[in-house]
Amino acid sequence: MNQSVIEKFRNELGQELDRILAFWVNTMPDEKYGGFLGELDFKGNPVPESPKGIILNTRLLWTFSAVAQQTNQKEHRLMADRAYDYLLANFLDRKHGGVFWLVDFKGAVLNSRKQIYAQAFFIYALSEYFKLTKKEEALELAVELFYLLEEKAADRNMGGYLDAFDEGWQELEDMRLSEKDLNEKKILNTHLHLLEAYSTLYTVYPNLEVKHALLGLIELFQEKFVGEDFHLNMFFDEQWNVKSQLVSYGHDIETSWLLYEAGEVLHDDFMLKKLSATAVAMANVFVREGLDQDGSVLNERDKANGHLDSNRHWWPQIEGIVGLINAWQLSANDLFLEKALAIWKYTQANLLDYEHGEWHWLVTTAGIPDRTMMKAGFWKCPYHNARGCLEALRRLPA
Fold it and tell me: Which of 170, 198, 249, 258 is deepest in the core (most CB within 10 A)?
Protein backbone atom coordinates (compact mmCIF):
# COMPACT_ATOMS: atom_id res chain seq x y z
CA MET A 1 0.00 0.00 0.00
CA ASN A 2 1.17 3.51 -0.81
CA GLN A 3 2.91 5.12 2.18
CA SER A 4 0.93 8.34 1.78
CA VAL A 5 -2.30 6.34 2.18
CA ILE A 6 -0.92 4.70 5.33
CA GLU A 7 0.10 8.09 6.73
CA LYS A 8 -3.39 9.47 6.08
CA PHE A 9 -4.92 6.40 7.78
CA ARG A 10 -2.60 6.93 10.72
CA ASN A 11 -3.35 10.65 11.01
CA GLU A 12 -7.10 10.07 10.95
CA LEU A 13 -6.84 7.48 13.72
CA GLY A 14 -4.74 9.88 15.78
CA GLN A 15 -7.32 12.63 15.37
CA GLU A 16 -10.10 10.23 16.30
CA LEU A 17 -8.25 9.13 19.43
CA ASP A 18 -8.08 12.80 20.50
CA ARG A 19 -11.83 13.17 19.86
CA ILE A 20 -12.68 10.04 21.88
CA LEU A 21 -10.57 11.09 24.83
CA ALA A 22 -12.00 14.62 24.86
CA PHE A 23 -15.51 13.18 25.05
CA TRP A 24 -14.74 11.12 28.14
CA VAL A 25 -12.74 13.87 29.85
CA ASN A 26 -15.46 16.45 29.28
CA THR A 27 -18.63 14.43 29.90
CA MET A 28 -18.02 11.48 32.20
CA PRO A 29 -16.63 12.70 35.57
CA ASP A 30 -19.28 12.75 38.30
CA GLU A 31 -18.58 16.03 40.04
CA LYS A 32 -21.27 15.51 42.69
CA TYR A 33 -20.74 11.95 43.93
CA GLY A 34 -17.22 11.19 42.72
CA GLY A 35 -15.77 8.90 40.12
CA PHE A 36 -17.72 8.77 36.88
CA LEU A 37 -21.36 8.93 35.86
CA GLY A 38 -23.06 5.57 35.49
CA GLU A 39 -24.71 6.11 32.11
CA LEU A 40 -25.16 8.60 29.29
CA ASP A 41 -28.07 8.29 26.87
CA PHE A 42 -27.88 8.25 23.07
CA LYS A 43 -27.29 12.01 22.97
CA GLY A 44 -24.67 11.92 25.71
CA ASN A 45 -26.92 13.28 28.45
CA PRO A 46 -26.51 11.85 31.97
CA VAL A 47 -29.17 9.36 33.04
CA PRO A 48 -30.04 10.47 36.60
CA GLU A 49 -29.01 8.21 39.48
CA SER A 50 -27.63 5.50 37.21
CA PRO A 51 -25.72 2.74 39.00
CA LYS A 52 -22.00 2.49 38.34
CA GLY A 53 -20.50 -0.72 36.97
CA ILE A 54 -17.13 -2.34 37.47
CA ILE A 55 -16.51 -2.85 33.74
CA LEU A 56 -16.88 0.84 32.90
CA ASN A 57 -14.65 1.90 35.77
CA THR A 58 -11.84 -0.62 35.27
CA ARG A 59 -11.82 0.09 31.53
CA LEU A 60 -11.58 3.82 32.22
CA LEU A 61 -8.61 3.16 34.50
CA TRP A 62 -6.90 1.05 31.84
CA THR A 63 -7.63 3.47 29.01
CA PHE A 64 -6.37 6.61 30.66
CA SER A 65 -3.38 4.82 32.21
CA ALA A 66 -2.37 3.63 28.74
CA VAL A 67 -3.11 6.93 27.03
CA ALA A 68 -1.33 9.08 29.61
CA GLN A 69 1.90 7.18 28.97
CA GLN A 70 1.70 8.24 25.31
CA THR A 71 0.38 11.78 25.60
CA ASN A 72 1.95 12.95 28.87
CA GLN A 73 -1.10 15.17 29.27
CA LYS A 74 -2.05 16.14 32.81
CA GLU A 75 -5.78 15.71 32.17
CA HIS A 76 -5.26 12.09 31.12
CA ARG A 77 -3.21 11.33 34.22
CA LEU A 78 -5.91 12.94 36.37
CA MET A 79 -8.58 10.75 34.76
CA ALA A 80 -6.50 7.65 35.56
CA ASP A 81 -6.01 8.80 39.15
CA ARG A 82 -9.74 9.51 39.47
CA ALA A 83 -10.62 6.01 38.28
CA TYR A 84 -8.05 4.38 40.56
CA ASP A 85 -9.17 6.28 43.65
CA TYR A 86 -12.85 5.54 43.03
CA LEU A 87 -12.28 1.84 42.43
CA LEU A 88 -10.36 1.47 45.67
CA ALA A 89 -12.88 3.49 47.65
CA ASN A 90 -16.08 1.89 46.30
CA PHE A 91 -15.50 -1.34 44.38
CA LEU A 92 -12.63 -3.01 46.23
CA ASP A 93 -13.70 -5.71 48.70
CA ARG A 94 -11.13 -5.33 51.44
CA LYS A 95 -12.62 -8.21 53.45
CA HIS A 96 -12.85 -11.00 50.86
CA GLY A 97 -10.69 -9.61 48.06
CA GLY A 98 -11.56 -8.74 44.50
CA VAL A 99 -14.00 -6.15 43.20
CA PHE A 100 -17.78 -5.90 43.32
CA TRP A 101 -19.96 -5.91 40.21
CA LEU A 102 -22.16 -2.85 40.77
CA VAL A 103 -22.55 0.15 43.08
CA ASP A 104 -25.27 2.79 43.17
CA PHE A 105 -24.82 6.39 42.05
CA LYS A 106 -23.50 7.31 45.49
CA GLY A 107 -21.05 4.39 45.64
CA ALA A 108 -22.94 1.92 47.88
CA VAL A 109 -22.70 -1.73 46.83
CA LEU A 110 -25.72 -3.00 44.87
CA ASN A 111 -24.34 -6.31 43.57
CA SER A 112 -21.40 -7.94 45.33
CA ARG A 113 -20.88 -10.91 42.96
CA LYS A 114 -17.33 -11.71 41.90
CA GLN A 115 -17.38 -12.18 38.14
CA ILE A 116 -13.95 -13.38 37.00
CA TYR A 117 -14.28 -11.27 33.86
CA ALA A 118 -14.36 -8.18 36.10
CA GLN A 119 -11.46 -9.34 38.25
CA ALA A 120 -9.42 -9.77 35.05
CA PHE A 121 -10.11 -6.19 34.04
CA PHE A 122 -9.04 -4.96 37.46
CA ILE A 123 -5.69 -6.77 37.15
CA TYR A 124 -5.30 -5.43 33.60
CA ALA A 125 -6.04 -1.86 34.68
CA LEU A 126 -3.93 -1.97 37.84
CA SER A 127 -0.94 -3.29 35.89
CA GLU A 128 -1.24 -0.49 33.33
CA TYR A 129 -1.69 2.09 36.08
CA PHE A 130 1.49 0.83 37.71
CA LYS A 131 3.31 1.35 34.40
CA LEU A 132 2.14 4.95 34.44
CA THR A 133 2.67 5.82 38.11
CA LYS A 134 5.07 3.21 39.56
CA LYS A 135 2.70 3.20 42.54
CA GLU A 136 3.57 0.04 44.49
CA GLU A 137 0.08 -0.21 45.98
CA ALA A 138 -1.37 -0.77 42.50
CA LEU A 139 1.06 -3.57 41.70
CA GLU A 140 0.53 -5.18 45.10
CA LEU A 141 -3.25 -5.21 44.53
CA ALA A 142 -2.82 -6.74 41.08
CA VAL A 143 -0.52 -9.47 42.40
CA GLU A 144 -2.81 -10.22 45.36
CA LEU A 145 -5.76 -10.59 43.03
CA PHE A 146 -3.79 -12.84 40.68
CA TYR A 147 -3.08 -15.26 43.53
CA LEU A 148 -6.67 -15.04 44.73
CA LEU A 149 -7.97 -16.03 41.28
CA GLU A 150 -5.52 -18.88 41.06
CA GLU A 151 -6.76 -20.11 44.45
CA LYS A 152 -10.51 -19.58 44.01
CA ALA A 153 -11.31 -19.67 40.29
CA ALA A 154 -8.73 -21.92 38.64
CA ASP A 155 -10.00 -25.43 37.90
CA ARG A 156 -7.07 -27.61 39.00
CA ASN A 157 -8.63 -30.80 37.67
CA MET A 158 -9.93 -29.84 34.23
CA GLY A 159 -8.04 -26.62 33.54
CA GLY A 160 -9.26 -23.13 32.87
CA TYR A 161 -11.25 -20.87 35.17
CA LEU A 162 -14.78 -21.00 36.52
CA ASP A 163 -16.77 -17.91 35.79
CA ALA A 164 -18.60 -16.44 38.78
CA PHE A 165 -18.68 -16.45 42.59
CA ASP A 166 -20.53 -14.70 45.36
CA GLU A 167 -19.02 -12.08 47.63
CA GLY A 168 -17.31 -14.72 49.79
CA TRP A 169 -16.00 -16.67 46.75
CA GLN A 170 -18.56 -19.46 46.79
CA GLU A 171 -19.50 -20.75 43.32
CA LEU A 172 -22.76 -19.34 41.93
CA GLU A 173 -25.50 -21.30 40.21
CA ASP A 174 -26.15 -18.48 37.73
CA MET A 175 -22.77 -17.64 36.22
CA ARG A 176 -23.96 -15.60 33.25
CA LEU A 177 -21.88 -12.57 32.41
CA SER A 178 -24.89 -10.89 30.81
CA GLU A 179 -28.49 -11.79 30.02
CA LYS A 180 -27.67 -12.86 26.46
CA ASP A 181 -24.99 -15.35 27.58
CA LEU A 182 -25.39 -19.04 28.30
CA ASN A 183 -25.20 -20.16 31.90
CA GLU A 184 -22.02 -22.22 31.49
CA LYS A 185 -19.02 -22.50 33.77
CA LYS A 186 -16.26 -21.72 31.28
CA ILE A 187 -16.56 -19.03 28.65
CA LEU A 188 -14.33 -17.55 26.00
CA ASN A 189 -14.87 -13.94 27.03
CA THR A 190 -13.55 -14.41 30.56
CA HIS A 191 -10.49 -16.39 29.44
CA LEU A 192 -9.71 -13.82 26.73
CA HIS A 193 -9.56 -10.99 29.24
CA LEU A 194 -7.60 -13.08 31.72
CA LEU A 195 -5.15 -13.61 28.87
CA GLU A 196 -4.64 -9.87 28.35
CA ALA A 197 -4.62 -9.22 32.11
CA TYR A 198 -1.95 -11.81 32.82
CA SER A 199 0.04 -10.68 29.77
CA THR A 200 0.13 -7.12 31.09
CA LEU A 201 0.80 -8.21 34.65
CA TYR A 202 3.76 -10.28 33.48
CA THR A 203 5.37 -7.21 31.89
CA VAL A 204 5.52 -5.51 35.30
CA TYR A 205 5.80 -8.62 37.49
CA PRO A 206 7.79 -11.29 35.57
CA ASN A 207 7.09 -13.97 38.14
CA LEU A 208 7.27 -17.70 37.31
CA GLU A 209 3.76 -18.36 38.61
CA VAL A 210 2.32 -15.63 36.42
CA LYS A 211 4.29 -17.04 33.49
CA HIS A 212 2.96 -20.53 34.16
CA ALA A 213 -0.64 -19.26 34.32
CA LEU A 214 -0.17 -17.27 31.11
CA LEU A 215 1.28 -20.29 29.33
CA GLY A 216 -1.69 -22.31 30.50
CA LEU A 217 -4.09 -19.79 29.01
CA ILE A 218 -2.25 -19.73 25.68
CA GLU A 219 -2.41 -23.52 25.53
CA LEU A 220 -6.15 -23.46 26.29
CA PHE A 221 -6.74 -21.12 23.39
CA GLN A 222 -4.77 -23.36 21.06
CA GLU A 223 -6.41 -26.56 22.27
CA LYS A 224 -9.97 -25.52 23.26
CA PHE A 225 -11.06 -22.07 22.19
CA VAL A 226 -9.74 -21.81 18.62
CA GLY A 227 -11.66 -24.37 16.61
CA GLU A 228 -10.56 -26.29 13.55
CA ASP A 229 -12.46 -23.77 11.41
CA PHE A 230 -10.52 -20.91 13.07
CA HIS A 231 -13.63 -19.58 14.74
CA LEU A 232 -13.79 -19.46 18.52
CA ASN A 233 -15.73 -21.85 20.71
CA MET A 234 -17.60 -19.45 23.00
CA PHE A 235 -19.14 -21.56 25.79
CA PHE A 236 -18.13 -24.78 27.57
CA ASP A 237 -19.31 -26.79 30.52
CA GLU A 238 -16.93 -27.71 33.33
CA GLN A 239 -15.59 -30.74 31.40
CA TRP A 240 -14.85 -28.67 28.26
CA ASN A 241 -17.79 -29.88 26.22
CA VAL A 242 -18.69 -27.22 23.66
CA LYS A 243 -22.14 -25.79 24.40
CA SER A 244 -22.64 -23.22 21.66
CA GLN A 245 -22.34 -22.87 17.89
CA LEU A 246 -22.22 -19.08 18.00
CA VAL A 247 -19.63 -17.28 15.89
CA SER A 248 -18.70 -13.80 17.12
CA TYR A 249 -16.67 -12.10 14.42
CA GLY A 250 -15.46 -9.37 16.77
CA HIS A 251 -14.17 -11.87 19.29
CA ASP A 252 -12.53 -13.94 16.56
CA ILE A 253 -10.41 -11.09 15.25
CA GLU A 254 -9.75 -9.57 18.70
CA THR A 255 -8.45 -12.91 19.93
CA SER A 256 -6.17 -13.27 16.90
CA TRP A 257 -4.04 -10.30 17.93
CA LEU A 258 -4.34 -10.61 21.72
CA LEU A 259 -3.19 -14.23 21.55
CA TYR A 260 -0.15 -13.30 19.48
CA GLU A 261 0.58 -10.40 21.84
CA ALA A 262 0.56 -12.82 24.79
CA GLY A 263 3.21 -14.89 23.03
CA GLU A 264 5.30 -11.77 22.43
CA VAL A 265 5.31 -11.04 26.15
CA LEU A 266 6.91 -14.45 26.82
CA HIS A 267 9.64 -14.04 24.16
CA ASP A 268 9.27 -17.63 22.94
CA ASP A 269 10.17 -17.81 19.23
CA PHE A 270 8.82 -21.33 18.72
CA MET A 271 5.49 -20.40 20.29
CA LEU A 272 5.33 -17.16 18.31
CA LYS A 273 5.73 -19.03 15.04
CA LYS A 274 2.68 -21.14 15.88
CA LEU A 275 0.68 -18.16 17.13
CA SER A 276 1.58 -16.19 14.02
CA ALA A 277 0.19 -18.92 11.81
CA THR A 278 -2.97 -19.04 13.93
CA ALA A 279 -3.44 -15.26 13.82
CA VAL A 280 -3.09 -15.13 10.04
CA ALA A 281 -5.43 -18.10 9.57
CA MET A 282 -8.05 -16.48 11.82
CA ALA A 283 -7.71 -13.22 9.91
CA ASN A 284 -8.20 -15.02 6.59
CA VAL A 285 -11.43 -16.62 7.81
CA PHE A 286 -12.54 -13.28 9.25
CA VAL A 287 -12.02 -11.56 5.89
CA ARG A 288 -13.83 -14.33 4.04
CA GLU A 289 -16.84 -14.63 6.37
CA GLY A 290 -17.01 -11.66 8.75
CA LEU A 291 -16.88 -8.70 6.37
CA ASP A 292 -19.73 -7.34 4.30
CA GLN A 293 -19.35 -5.84 0.83
CA ASP A 294 -19.44 -2.32 2.27
CA GLY A 295 -16.28 -3.10 4.28
CA SER A 296 -17.99 -3.40 7.68
CA VAL A 297 -17.76 -6.17 10.27
CA LEU A 298 -20.86 -8.28 10.80
CA ASN A 299 -21.83 -9.08 14.38
CA GLU A 300 -22.66 -12.76 14.94
CA ARG A 301 -23.71 -15.96 13.21
CA ASP A 302 -25.21 -19.10 14.72
CA LYS A 303 -23.78 -22.16 12.99
CA ALA A 304 -26.60 -24.29 14.42
CA ASN A 305 -29.40 -22.54 12.51
CA GLY A 306 -27.58 -20.22 10.14
CA HIS A 307 -29.03 -17.05 11.69
CA LEU A 308 -26.90 -13.98 10.96
CA ASP A 309 -26.93 -10.80 13.06
CA SER A 310 -25.77 -8.27 10.49
CA ASN A 311 -26.01 -5.18 12.70
CA ARG A 312 -22.74 -3.28 12.87
CA HIS A 313 -21.70 -2.87 16.50
CA TRP A 314 -19.01 -0.34 17.36
CA TRP A 315 -16.40 -2.60 18.94
CA PRO A 316 -15.99 -5.32 16.26
CA GLN A 317 -15.12 -2.59 13.74
CA ILE A 318 -12.10 -1.31 15.66
CA GLU A 319 -11.01 -4.81 16.71
CA GLY A 320 -11.20 -5.76 13.03
CA ILE A 321 -8.88 -2.89 12.16
CA VAL A 322 -6.28 -3.90 14.76
CA GLY A 323 -6.50 -7.63 14.02
CA LEU A 324 -6.06 -7.09 10.28
CA ILE A 325 -3.14 -4.70 10.79
CA ASN A 326 -1.57 -7.40 12.98
CA ALA A 327 -2.11 -10.01 10.26
CA TRP A 328 -0.56 -7.61 7.72
CA GLN A 329 2.49 -7.20 9.94
CA LEU A 330 2.86 -10.97 10.29
CA SER A 331 2.22 -11.90 6.66
CA ALA A 332 3.17 -8.81 4.60
CA ASN A 333 -0.09 -9.41 2.69
CA ASP A 334 -1.44 -5.99 1.69
CA LEU A 335 -4.97 -7.39 1.41
CA PHE A 336 -5.24 -7.32 5.20
CA LEU A 337 -4.27 -3.64 5.36
CA GLU A 338 -6.68 -2.79 2.54
CA LYS A 339 -9.52 -4.48 4.44
CA ALA A 340 -8.55 -2.67 7.66
CA LEU A 341 -8.71 0.65 5.83
CA ALA A 342 -12.12 -0.26 4.37
CA ILE A 343 -13.46 -0.98 7.88
CA TRP A 344 -12.15 2.40 9.02
CA LYS A 345 -13.83 4.20 6.12
CA TYR A 346 -17.12 2.48 6.99
CA THR A 347 -16.69 3.34 10.67
CA GLN A 348 -15.96 7.00 9.90
CA ALA A 349 -19.09 7.27 7.78
CA ASN A 350 -21.49 5.31 9.99
CA LEU A 351 -20.36 4.69 13.58
CA LEU A 352 -18.75 7.98 14.60
CA ASP A 353 -21.29 10.35 16.16
CA TYR A 354 -20.19 13.79 15.02
CA GLU A 355 -23.21 15.47 16.61
CA HIS A 356 -23.15 14.08 20.14
CA GLY A 357 -19.62 12.68 20.40
CA GLU A 358 -18.06 9.22 20.74
CA TRP A 359 -19.39 6.29 18.65
CA HIS A 360 -22.85 4.85 18.19
CA TRP A 361 -23.41 1.50 19.89
CA LEU A 362 -24.64 0.00 16.62
CA VAL A 363 -26.10 0.84 13.25
CA THR A 364 -28.36 -1.29 11.08
CA THR A 365 -27.42 -2.65 7.68
CA ALA A 366 -28.85 0.60 6.29
CA GLY A 367 -26.49 2.61 8.49
CA ILE A 368 -29.22 3.87 10.83
CA PRO A 369 -28.11 4.29 14.49
CA ASP A 370 -30.11 2.55 17.21
CA ARG A 371 -31.20 5.54 19.28
CA THR A 372 -32.31 3.36 22.20
CA MET A 373 -28.72 2.39 22.97
CA MET A 374 -26.62 4.31 25.46
CA LYS A 375 -23.61 6.40 24.51
CA ALA A 376 -21.73 5.38 27.65
CA GLY A 377 -22.43 2.98 30.49
CA PHE A 378 -21.73 -0.40 32.02
CA TRP A 379 -20.54 -2.01 28.74
CA LYS A 380 -19.99 1.10 26.59
CA CYS A 381 -16.54 2.39 27.42
CA PRO A 382 -13.50 3.86 25.59
CA TYR A 383 -11.56 0.63 25.99
CA HIS A 384 -12.14 -0.81 22.51
CA ASN A 385 -11.98 2.28 20.34
CA ALA A 386 -9.27 4.14 22.28
CA ARG A 387 -7.16 0.99 22.60
CA GLY A 388 -7.70 0.21 18.93
CA CYS A 389 -6.49 3.66 17.89
CA LEU A 390 -3.46 3.33 20.16
CA GLU A 391 -2.61 -0.10 18.75
CA ALA A 392 -3.02 1.01 15.14
CA LEU A 393 -0.84 4.08 15.72
CA ARG A 394 1.81 1.85 17.27
CA ARG A 395 1.74 -0.63 14.40
CA LEU A 396 1.36 1.55 11.30
CA PRO A 397 4.65 2.98 10.00
CA ALA A 398 4.89 6.76 10.33
Answer: 198
